[in-house]
Amino acid sequence: MNDFRRFLVLLPVFWFTVLPVAKADTLEEMREREKKVREVAARVLPCVVAVTSSDEKKPGSGSGVIVSADGLILTAAHVTQATGNSLTIIFPDGRRVKGTALGANRTTDAGMAKITDSGEWPHVEIGSSDNLRLGDWVIAMGHPGGYSFDRKPPVRLGRVWRRDPDGAMFTSCPLIGGDSGGPLFDLSGNVVGINSSIHGSVDMNRHVAIDTLRFDWSKLIKDQTWGKMIFNTSMITRPIIGAVFDRESVHGVSVTEVYDDLPAAKAGLKAGDVITKFDGEHVSTYHALQRLLGRRQAGEKIALTAQRDGKPVELTLELAARAARSSDDDSTAEIPAEPSIPTPEGPRPWLGAGMEKTEGRDGTQLASVTPDSPAAQAGLREGDVVLKINGADTPNPTAAADALLKLKPGDKASFLLHRDGADLSIDVTLGKKEP
């Protein structure tokens, strides 16, 4: 079996092991959440529109959300690419107005459109996706199957369970065709994402993060279109810094480890530093730093501002190219939108941790740890570098999946980890997920 087919066969079980599950909520918590969802849905529903083509030869359609009084619409790039420039915008109450497509970033799948009829339009507020945490509740809306006069846009509640390095979010909100381009809201009713690729499996639904879209706002509104449709922004080639960061940082990006002989070390960055500016841009979160990094090239020199012992430090960082990957490293293999993969029979082992390739060195890094999961209960932490599982080397996520797939629910997995400059061993008793 070749490497890519091998990755696809492993994918269902391995990804299933990283899907978060909700902890048990109290009845009062559930009632409060239901109240918030109802309030948000009633407030934002008039702004969730169907985006359809005005050209009979282009039958494309999708969803969108109005974000300004003059009719600016956020949607998905693949929606406006399918509909063409001349649009009909349909409100939930059946009103139809004219519109036009604006710019699109095909790589991240962010798109814009605009109502061209005069008027003052209902609109929603834009929030921040950077402030969302794994496990946070979100609301997805849209027009599944296209606009229908006999029902309002459905309200789908789910949780954020994964984020890729460019900030794109994967949620458990159930979506179907036609929801593309529709909004993802936080429980305050602010737009935090746009529905992008929709998968047959609910846990593969992807959303463009609103803070990723903000980076391209000026180009999108000027009707510029660029990029390539890939629906997996983890494939975007980024240069490396050579450091490990605290992904939960909210007031600057904390550096937890710096690797020798890589750009961060050469620039003088140290563990404990807190990066506050990257090339003159303020950064407060890990995802903001990653998006800025993704727009730079190896060899570029970047001015960094960091806080060290309460004092500002100015550094110059020369970005390096990511090392070429070996043929058995599938960590960035593109995942088809609807892979035809046989699902393994029987209960599946559940770890409860997301894994990704470690930047700048061999190893598999924990990108997320689900609360109350076997991984969390055993003491695994986000940012841990997994060196071995049951004695088997784990130079990439596929190797880690291989090691885990040899085990059954209830089996013990012995992890050799690198954390805070030292190696340690932790045993995890795997849980069970039914197929």
SS-based structural class? alpha+beta
Q: DSSP helix count? A: 9
User: What is the CATH topology assignment of the domain at 344-433?
Assistant: Pdz3 Domain
CATH superfamily name of the domain at 344-433? PDZ domain
CATH architecture descriptor text of the domain at 344-433: Roll
How would you sum up this structure, described in words?
With 435 residues, this protein is α+β, with helices and mostly antiparallel strands. Among the domains are: 125-144 and 154-218, Thrombin, subunit H (Beta Barrel); 238-318, Pdz3 Domain (Roll), CATH 2.30.42; 344-433, PDZ domain (Pdz3 Domain), CATH 2.30.42. The chain has helices spanning 3-18, 27-44, 77-83, 210-215, 217-221, 263-267, 286-294, 374-378, 397-405; strands spanning 48-53, 61-66, 72-76, 86-90, 96-105, 110-115, 137-141, 155-163, 169-171, 183-185, 191-195, 205-209, 225-226, 243-245, 253-258, 274-278, 281-282, 301-308, 311-318, 348-350, 353-357, 364-369, 385-389, 392-393, 412-419, 422-429, 431-433. The strands form five sheets. It has a six-stranded antiparallel β-barrel. A six-stranded antiparallel beta barrel has the order 7-8-9-12-11-10. A hairpin with a 2-residue loop joins strand 18 (301-308) and strand 19 (311-318). It starts with a helix and ends with a strand. Mean pLDDT is 80; it is low at 1-23, 231-235 and 324-345.
Task: Briefly summarize what is shown.
The protein is an alpha+beta fold and 435 residues long.
